Amino acid sequence: MGSGWLKMTRTNIAENAVDASVSEVWGEVSQRLRRELGEDTFRSWLGGPYAQGGGAGEALLVTPSAFVRDWVRREAWKRAAQLWGECDPSGRELSLRT
Questions:
Q1: Cβ–Cβ < 8 Å for 92, 52
Q2: Nearest 5°: phi and psi at 61?
Q3: Which helix (H) or strand (E) holds 19?
Q4: Rounded distance, CA 33 to CA 57, Å?
Q5: Which of 3, 6, 25, 97 lies 20 to 30 angstroms, CA to CA, from 36?
């Protein structure tokens, strides 16, 4: 295996480390939202979305459908973004995507 493989592997490891951090922050945010919204509402609307690393300084909350995205935007986005800001030590901006 050449050095290109090694370089790609190091890049992937670095990207996965960022994603793990994003997942940890989303885990904390989702725990708080679960307490605030209640188990049934949380599970119905926020149980499916997941967070992943985006570009530099950005994280994405990815929803399974436009329907769920629209509900999150209307009913929970302001609070989710506020909690994200409190929980993310890296200061990444959270964006909502389908």
A1: no
A2: -100, 115
A3: helix 3-37
A4: 23
A5: 97
CA 37 to chain centre: 18
Look up residue 78 and give its amino acid: K
The answer to whether 69 and 97 are in contact (CB under 8 A) is: yes
pLDDT, tens digit, 9 for 90 and up, residues 40-60: 999 999 888 888 888 888 899
The conformation of residue 72, written as its DSSP 8-state character, comes to: H
pTM of the model as a whole:
0.73
Instruction: Measure the CA–CA gap between 8 and 4, rounded to whole angstroms.
Output: 6
Place of tokens 């994405």: 60
pLDDT tens per residue, range 65-90: 999 999 999 999 999 999 999 999 88
Evaluate whether 48 touches 68 at the Cβ level (below 8 Å).
yes
Amino acid occupying residue 18: V
